[in-house]
Amino acid sequence: MTGLRLTLFNPVSGVLVVDSEARFNLSVVEGPSDMQYSMEFDNGAGVTPFNDSAMFRETFSIPGEYVITASANDTNSTVHDQVIVL
Asked: Per DSSP, which regions of 1-86 are E strands?
């Protein structure tokens, strides 16, 4: 299976304490090595710039469920997405 694998490092069972930092890991599954990555955290901040050094950390200040989307583009403009729900 090709695409992205997005995992959440620190919470137990996908639950975060409000105002604590969520840390993410993103890996490519059988994809090219020349990928550019961006994240969208479903909190109104919009999409991160590609390969932003801070995109694997986010703090959520309002309780709720968030759909986190990771996107990747390779040199052929192929987009792969995977979503995780907190």
From this structure: 3-8, 21-29, 36-40, 57-59, 67-73, 79-85
